[in-house]
Please model this.
Amino acid sequence: MTWPRTGTAWWMVSLLFLAGIFSVIDRAILNIVVDPVRLDLGITDVQIGLLQGLAFGVFYAFMGLPMGLLADRTSRKRLLVAGITIWSLATIASGYATSFGELFAARLMVGLGEAALGPCAISLIADMFPPEKRGRPISVYMMGQGLANGIAISVTGIIISVAIAGGFAAVPLIGEMAPWRTTFLICGALGLLVALGLLTTREPARQNVTVTKPLKSALPGVAEAQFFWRNRGVMLPLYFGFAIVFLVAYGAGSWAPAMLMRGFGASPAFLGAWLGPFSIAFAAVGPLIGGLLLDRSMKQGKVMKRFGILSLAPLLAIPSALAVMADNVYVAALLVASSAAIFSVIGTVMFATLQAIVPPQMRGSSISLTLILNTMIGAACGPLLIATVTEHILGDATQVGWSIAIVSIPALIVGAALNALAWRGMKQARLAKTETALLLDPQLADPA
Model:
């Protein structure tokens, strides 16, 4: 089979890297400007939690599977360009919102556009690199999303500081806007540039479409559902374990900046100068570690070790969930940022594992299902659960750090346990030489 030229493939990866950064920035801006938005619009922590999770997640979740099916059947490049354009324009619209309802609607559209990214990006990478070389480009793409949270913190802190100092006073359209509104407008406009860049690329040919038994069904999605059900002993705990772990990633990530500002007295400038760079550093290291582990496991023929990584890594995020117990704001910021490396490793390993254990014609839909569950369980529930504990159980906004711990630690333990069940199910299926094993990537030959 013929693979795209290295330069062409990595140009596409670089644009997907940027798209991943802006996708996370555009959804994460709200996490850094929680209190200004809350005061400006006159809303509560629970409503902020709804904006952070449910508003973004409704379309993101329900459009995830259709986007995955489209990614498996149509031009992924065109679908992705359309998605980036939609979410970037919706981010700009967020800066003009004057009520909870208007901001909720804008966040819905951000979720709709971003639902196209994951299925298209991972499927494109899988068709540009052979299996033994996919770990690094997938890790680079995941690194972009991991870096984005830290970049969002730093960029938002800088923009707010400049706006407060009157730095945008002479700029048309944004000169007299509130700092948080200016941030949404600037970041949304930058995302449109990535969409223009993707127009310079070419759709890669789909690889290995005849390696496995074709998925035939009268209705789109039925064959995919049948495959998942046949392999439910592996797929159900694997997907739900991943989603529950990312309940912590979304929930704690959404409220950690507010925890530092409310509980430790941090300012937006501090977040930009310290939490942002800390997060960027950890987010850069995590995917590189994940990519190294993936490529090494493939070369050594020990690819089942990926399930071991997914079973143990969530427990390493527990110290980050306990950042509220730190002695000072610098240690707290360091602990908060450390989770970026861990969640990046988990995401990188999970996506690469899915690309290996499903038929090639299901690569887009397999990723879209992770986005659906991660959104419904992680993005929608994580921020809202933490806000609910803060507002209705602890009854003190300054105690949001303890809310993070109360929600996160049990979720991390449950997620790790579910991934261990998937590991066990995979071993049993392969040793028994069931239909599950026959449908897996033929390179996964060692049950170790």
